Structure formats: C-alpha cells, structure tokens
Amino acid sequence: MPIWILVLVVTLTWCTILAAELTGAAVEDVKNPLGGEQTRGVSIFPVPIMAVIFVLIALGVDALLDTIWGSRVVGSAHGLFAVLAAISVVRDVGYLRRRRGPVGRAS
Fold first, then answer.
1. Which of 70, 75, 79, 80 could form a disulfide with 62 if both were Cys (CB 3.0 to 4.6 A apart)?
2. If DSSP codes are grouped into helix, strand and coil, which group holds residue 105?
3. Which of 12, 11, 42, 43 is nearest to 27 (CA)?
4. What per-residue confidence (pLDDT) applies to 30?
C-alpha cells in the first residue's frame, strides 16, 4: 500500500471519529443538558497525533518485518473504524433531527 493512501485512510478515519464524537456530544447535550447555555466540547488534539502514531507503527512493522502487513493491518482496521464512526454519525444526526427538527433550520 502506498504511504499516501495509508496516511489518507488513517487521517480521514480520525476525522470521522472526531465527527462521531462531536455528534455524540450534541446528543448528550440534548439528553442531559448542562446548566445555562453550556455545551459539551470535544478536543481535536487526537486527530493529528493519533494519525501520525498509527502511520509510524505501520511503517515500523513494514520495515521490521520487510513486508506490507503493517500497512495492511493498520489500513484495514482504520477502514473498519471509519465505517463504524460514520454509522455513529448518521445515527446521532438522525436522533438530533427527530429531537430538534432538520439541521440548519432556524428556530
């Protein structure tokens, strides 16, 4: 697997996980609101850090074993996680639409 594909898959997966965390926080705000105008937040810190760590792990395994299995395993696992995170986003957006109305509509 070319390194640019691995970097793209891992980075997009972590961005999708961030979107899942954001929608999950929004759902939690609807279910259990904080006092006043406060809302829950999510840090973007894990996106670049974890993407670099997993790419380096994959490349390290590739170099250590002289194979492409590190890239394959990390890329495949991240592809699976991206699908699961996307399902979570769709589920949470559906919940928010049922509770609040269509997204983007002025109240």
1. 70
2. coil
3. 42
4. 85
This prediction has a pTM of 0.82
DSSP state of 104: T
**How deeply is 75 buried, as exposed, middle or buried, from its count of CB atoms within 10 A (0-12, 13-18, 19+)?**
buried
Cβ neighbourhood burial of 94 (10 Å; 0-12, 13-18, 19+): exposed
The 3 state secondary structure assigned to 28-73 is HHHHCCCCCCCCCCCCCCHHHHHHHHHHHHHHHHHHHHCCCHHHHH
pLDDT of residue 88: 96
What residue has token string 């983007």?
A: 104
Query: For the chain, how big is the Rg over CA atoms in Å?
Result: 18
